[in-house]
Amino acid sequence: MGRAGPIRIVVADDHAMLRDGITNYIENNADLALVGEAENGAQAVELYRRLLPDVLLLDVQMPVMGGLDAIDAIIGEFPEARIIVLTTYDGDAQAMRALRAGARGFLLKSGLRRELGDAIRQVHAGRRRIQPEIASAIAIGAIEDALTGRECQVLKLAANGNANRQIAHLLGVSEETVKTHMRSILSKLDARDRTHAVTIALRRGIIEL
User: Fold this and answer.
1) How many C-beta atoms lie closer than 10 Å to residue 196's C-beta?
2) pLDDT tens figures, 20-72
3) Residue 135 pLDDT exceeds 90
4) 100, 122, 141 - which closes a domain
5) SS3 content of the chain, % helix, strand, coil (to 5)
6) N or C: the chain end with fewer CB closer than 10 Å?
7) pLDDT of amino acid 73
8) Phi–psi pair at 177, nearest 5 degrees
9) Is residue 192 exposed (0-12), middle (13-18) or buried (19+ Cβ within 10 Å)?
10) Is 29 in the same domain as 124?
């Protein structure tokens, strides 16, 4: 950090086409330079240690080691690391987890063409960059009642196709307790039914499958 010359960037994403698109973008900006590519979170951590880039572009959903775990590992060793999370999901819960872990930016992949350059430069300068639609979702989510850890467990099991009785067995609680959790989930998410609740939770990044 603070070196003269172009901003040195590592990109970590398991989709080669996205990496190629970012590479082409960087090559057309003289103040940016791609110094490494990773296909998963574990590779991203290793590349960061070896190359110490100015900015790391990191997909949040990757094999071997996910983006959030990679952020934890990198920030644990390099607290000043500049990390921008890339995602296809505009979920407020996912964004908050990434930012709390130490990410400095959060961008939707659908908006990279218009947002990426400014985001890299701002994060490299020590500022944060969060797309307005994500910031709005975070603000709305912050004033709503968050799901408890148990409610997240219940909803994730429901998302995997388990009926209330199966969820009760898996969690070691009564079926009535599961129904109580589900009523609370529907109320907090303003959902019509459990399928709608699962859809909302996945979109917001509250649960992952």
Assistant:
1) 13
2) 999 999 999 999 999 999 999 999 999 999 999 999 999 988 889 989 999 99
3) no
4) 141
5) 55, 15, 30
6) C
7) 96
8) -65, -40
9) exposed
10) yes
Beta strands 55-59 and 32-38: pairing type?
Answer: unpaired
**Residues 93 and 128 both lie in one domain:** yes
* Side-chain-facing half-sphere of 82: CA atoms under 13 Å: 21
Contact 80, 103 (CB under 8 A): no
Same domain, yes or no: 137 and 154 = no
Residue type for position 51: L
Q: Which domain holds residue 177?
A: 149-204
Q: How does pLDDT run across 136-176, given as a tens digit for each residue?
A: 667 556 546 678 889 999 999 999 999 999 999 999 999 99
Reference 70, options 103, 22, 23; nearest CA is 103
Asked if the structure places residue 2 within a domain, the reply is: no
Task: Say yes or no: 26 and 119 in one domain.
Answer: yes
> Which residue, of 141, 172, 193, is where some domain finishes?
141
CATH number, position 137: 3.40.50.2300
Mean pLDDT along residues 82-97: 82
The reply to whether 134 and 154 lie within a common domain is no
The answer to whether 22 and 57 are in contact (CB under 8 A) is yes
Residue among 192, 184, 200 nearest 150 (CA):
184
pLDDT at 107 exceeding the cut of 60: yes
Rounded CA gap, 39 and 53, in Å?
16
